[in-house]
Amino acid sequence: MKRAAFVANLAGLAIAGSAMRALGSQGYAVTHSDAQWRALLGPARFEILREGGTEPANSSPLIAETRAGTYRCAGCELAVFSSKTKYDSGDGWPSFWDVLPNAIRKQSDYALIEERTEVHCRQCGGHLGHLFDDGPAPTHLRYCIDGLALRFVPS
What we know:
CATH topology: Metal Binding Protein, Guanine Nucleotide Exchange Factor, Chain A
CATH class: Mainly Beta
Distance between the termini: 44 Å
Number of helices: 2
CATH architecture: Beta Complex
Largest sheet: 6 strands, antiparallel
Strand content: 25-35%
Oligomer: single chain
């Protein structure tokens, strides 16, 4: 990676982390201190849900999950996605073409310089992943979600 791109990426991650810390003041129903979140989530989930991090591509066992069920926020257990809307996008993360009603909040994200849409849990503000407009019919949306941000509950 070229030095300028590396520095820009580091700056973007710092901005994303600051934005995540500010989420605690936006009226979420489930809130905890950073220390409490760390104890509840563990280091990897804390980095993703509370600091806006991303797990390595193709590292989540949820990519291969094919059973019927519900995907819940790993921070607060809010039902976020149905297995009925999951599909294999080939991007290396669990992907969905729709979200359950009243499950998320969206926010602009400039961490990689270009604007993206960040997806957060409506109940705890946890960073779930990003939303793109290159998904399949009928919505043509792709919710690209970190597997560690979710817990799968089979039906």
